Recover the amino acids of this structure.
């Protein structure tokens, strides 16, 4: 683990919470680097794969490596979605939607800022 989680990080990573749109520190971040799991430090996403989805959360077209992000079905809140999880520690990251850029595979990994940390280049 990278260190003690803040209350917000704990709620999101360990209790499957979410932050409000347009409030997280990375939704409008354009710095280059690698996004790591805030719970265990695993490299999850690269800034080169980040795009502005207009959703208010950091959005990526794909994980840094396929095996780093696990997915499972989420049926909470009266809907069915695909949950994105850190494959190493099981931390809740956000959700995956099929409305991403078509030329990049069509997926949008919609991730909570509190679940990741940016290691700048």
């Amino acid at each position: 683990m990278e260190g003690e989680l803040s209350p917000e990080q704990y709620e999101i990573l360990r209790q499957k919470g979410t932050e409000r749109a347009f409030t997280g520190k990375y939704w409008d971040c354009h710095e280059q680097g690698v996004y790591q799991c805030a719970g265990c430090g695993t490299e999850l996403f690269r800034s080169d794969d980040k795009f502005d989805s207009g959703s208010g959360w950091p959005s990526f077209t794909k994980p840094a490596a396929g095996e780093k992000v696990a997915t499972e079905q989420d049926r909470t809140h009266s809907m069915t979605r695909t949950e994105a999880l850190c494959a190493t520690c099981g931390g809740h990251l956000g959700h995956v939607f099929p409305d991403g850029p078509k030329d990049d595979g069509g997926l949008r990994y919609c991730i909570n800022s509190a679940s990741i940390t940016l290691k700048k280049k």
